[in-house]
Design goal:
The protein is α/β, with parallel strands linked by helices. The protein is about 45% helix and about 10% strand. The chain has a six-stranded mixed beta sheet, with helices on one face. α6 links the parallel β4 (about 160-165) and β5. The chain is flat, with a radius of gyration of 27 Å.
Length: about 300
């Protein structure tokens, strides 16, 4: 009898049945729309949104900048609106020191889509673009050639990458751009990377791409994978706790992460890691007392830091 009463209590009434039917109709409509949405997405390349440990092992694969990489590649592969507009398009990339501008550009230039699109890829630095580099056309013996394929169907179309530490005055840029425009085929592109926000005004087709440090959780993933590899860090809570504190003191700098992680990985000892953490604390405190800033911030501003023993 009790079982029968309980069964009667669970039987839905008319109002509940109507709500259930309405919800079911909504789900059927949603699933029908998802079929079209899935077909639509198949036309776009897959972009990983989350970091994976394999990204730290495989060559030619970059950690944490997939969205930015695709943004640059889309700019490079985009064709001009008008055929008569033969001036090379420019994309500025702005970011602090050691944030990964050069690494990002290198990985973009290794992409097969980019290499098939341009017959040559050349990197220039401030030293290359001295008085000699202002000639028109640009001398062929300056810069570092990263890719060259004279047999490609894209013959003549080139990509120039200019890496600067600071600013470039308008007169110098005007001469350089005129020189590049006179010596490059239609569809050529230019990337200018610098720490200075002033170069953002050099862009011709879109806003400058600004690189910032990885979010704390993504940076911690990167750091702990460098330290622990494929091992589960939760199996060693003491070491994981020390690693998290050390990662925080590196202040999001990739170079600092690689240096610290290499020492930690070579000696998986809590006492050694504690000593390393204390050294980092002393090093950071010394700079905060002497200069009022974190040493990583000083490096990003191009200012000297005190190298402790």
């Amino acid at each position: 009898t009790s079982s029968k009463k309980n069964l009667q209590k669970t039987m839905p009434n008319t109002e509940s049945l109507n709500k259930l039917e309405k919800m079911l109709n909504g789900l059927e409509t949603l699933m029908g729309d998802m079929v079209e949405f899935t077909v639509f997405l198949e036309g776009y390349p897959r972009i990983p949104r989350q970091p994976y440990s394999t990204y730290l092992i495989l060559d030619k694969v970059m950690f944490g900048r997939q969205m930015e990489k695709e943004t640059i590649i889309n700019f490079l592969l985009r064709t001009g609106v008008a055929a008569c507009d033969e001036s090379p398009k420019v994309l500025p990339i702005v970011g602090a020191a050691w944030v990964g501008k050069t690494t990002l550009i290198e990985h973009v230039c290794l992409d097969e889509r980019v290499r098939e699109h341009f017959s040559s890829i050349v990197f220039f630095t401030e030293d290359d673009l001295g008085a000699q580099g202002m000639a028109s056309p640009l001398p062929p013996d300056i810069g570092v050639i990263k890719h060259q394929d004279l047999t490609a169907t894209s013959y003549g179309r080139s990509l120039s990458v200019i890496e600067l530490a600071g600013d470039m005055d308008e007169e110098t840029w005007s001469r350089l751009y005129s020189s590049a425009a006179s010596s490059k085929a239609h569809g050529s592109k230019i990337i200018v990377a610098s720490r200075s926000e002033k170069i953002s005004g050099l862009g011709t087709t879109q806003e400058a791409l600004r690189l910032r440090h990885l979010p704390r959780d993504a940076y911690w993933y990167f750091f702990r994978t460098l330290v622990f590899g494929s091992a589960n860090h939760e199996d060693q809570p003491k070491l994981a706790s020390l690693a998290m504190e050390i990662a925080a003191l590196t202040n999001g700098i990739f170079l600092g992460a690689n240096i610290m992680a290499s020492m930690m990985r070579a000696n998986l000892n809590a006492r050694f890691w504690s000593r390393l953490l204390q050294c980092l604390r002393d090093y950071t405190s010394r700079h905060l007392l002497m200069f009022g800033e974190h040493p990583a911030d000083l490096i990003q501003k191009g200012r000297p830091v005190y190298a402790c023993r």
